[in-house]
Amino acid sequence: MKPVSDNRMLIERLEEKGKAVRIGENIDWNLEASALFRRTHEEKEKGPAILFENVKDYPNQRIAGGLLDTFEKVAIALGIDSDMEISEIIKIYKNRSEKKIPPKIVKNGPVKENIILSDDVNLFEIAAPMVHGGDGGRYVSTWQFQVSKDPDTDWTNWGTYRQMILDECTLSGMINEGSHQAIIFRKYEKSGEPMPIATVIGPDPVSSMLGPRSLPQGESEVDQAGGLRGEPVKLVEAETSDLLVPNNAEMIIEGEILPRVRVPEGPFGEYPGYRVEPAGYRLAIKVNAITYRDNPIITVSNMGYPNDDGDIVASITRSVSIKSDLQRHGIPVIEVYRPPEALYCCVIQVDPVYPNIASTIHNIVYGDPTLQAWLNQLIVVPPDINPFDLGEVFHALFHRCNPNTDFLLQSKSFTGGITTFLPNEKRKRREGPKITFDCTWPKHWSDKDLPIKSSWRNEIMYPPNVQNKVCELWEKHIASNITQSTKDNKNTKIREDQSISSDSFKARGEKIKWETIKNTYSSIDEDEKKQYLIRDTDKFKWRTVEGIISSSPNNLDNFKKILVYSPLGRPEKSPRYINIEEELGDALSASKNIEELGLSFAQQE
Predict the structure, then answer these.
(1) Is 50 helix (H, G, I), strand (E, B) or coil?
(2) FRET pair for 128, CA 20 to 30 Å: which of 31, 268, 438, 600?
């Protein structure tokens, strides 16, 4: 069977296998849709892919998630046996992608069915979800890739980087230093030129697997996508630049990354399973055009507790990248597996033909400028250990590996007489090291130091009313697809007495219109005139104002007084009130007066 040609075909194939559901019931883009995606990811027996066909406020758009959140779904997308072992799926992916097929340039395609240009652009007309409670805004780019082109060569990069809606025509984006998009952008920024970019929402599922792939610098992902598909990827020219984009994507957002301008972005519940990195000032993307298919599908990957689409696809693509890198260096590598539950870790099966081969592997992998950004632990195992069986890997780790390193180590202690990693003389003396991996948070950390767990069960991210809606939809549309053994008390509604009791949390509903955003999570300065970033809690648009904040409305005049919640993502004991004295503008307009604004929407670097 051929690989699927687009997301619509994938949904049909998944439906045939009982691995997708269409939900016609009205769903709120604000947390509800994403919370249900998150639950499907967290169940041990994974739920189906979900297509929401009736999205609140967006009658002609749909939202889909969980399209590739299992190896079985990836196999279906690739057109291979869905019961195939993980090792075989990775092998087929590697073999196909190495048979590169250049793209085919065409003049039109479904993604050009609707075209919006310049002044007509309004990002809030896209059914972008609020993915996690406490995120910096609505993220339109969670399952997509971005197209950028090196200004000095013909190298075109596809990379997956998150993007948040800031206002009607501005996105803020995060890219990791050392990534290929960052390397290309630095060239533009050095010359003071904006970098053309195209964000591809809902590319065909096979091509979407190339976004998280780590290729050597200078190699274009589109050629490998052709190899994976077994035919050229059809590309069409963008409306406002010479970038080439897939002609059958669901939506293309065309824009340019502005040089030396940074705007607020984040926080966001990310792939390690926690919201770790705070909000910061990151890339500003001015949007110039949007093209899209009729009734577009906004594809979403709700990053968080494993396993979601990003975990599964990155497990495959990074396993392939690491194996290819080791083979180029002549390492007798047999298999490589980057477990989706532990994306900082990689298990490498190797024939240890010479001493200290693990040291050589360490230097190669951590010396790679791309791979080193994604890996923190390597586990090197011999041929008799199956790297895809984490039980075997753990047994080898704790019975063959000498823990006499740092961490919490007691280097000289009593041990058993059959400790395989110790030399004979130490075994005879029953003397060896002990090590403890402490997985609890440090006791000296304050509540503000603790990362917020990105899970549908976390009431800070998904309030009880949203959790209850998820439980209702789960029982109605999804539970029948799950094995009977997984139907337990998790499906019970969240009781009212389980909700967070603080007044601030209860006040986060209709009464609160705005949130204040600060550079740090410090407390708000009372009764002092300052510039503040505020974000409305209806559409999540950002703007800047000047005013005075107080914990009591009685301390302020009635002039433009609004209730606010602060700071973003952390419930306070009591809400504040702000007396707005002056409007300072939206994201890019505010950047024109950077020196006067101080804490503004944009900062000059």
Answers:
(1) strand
(2) 600
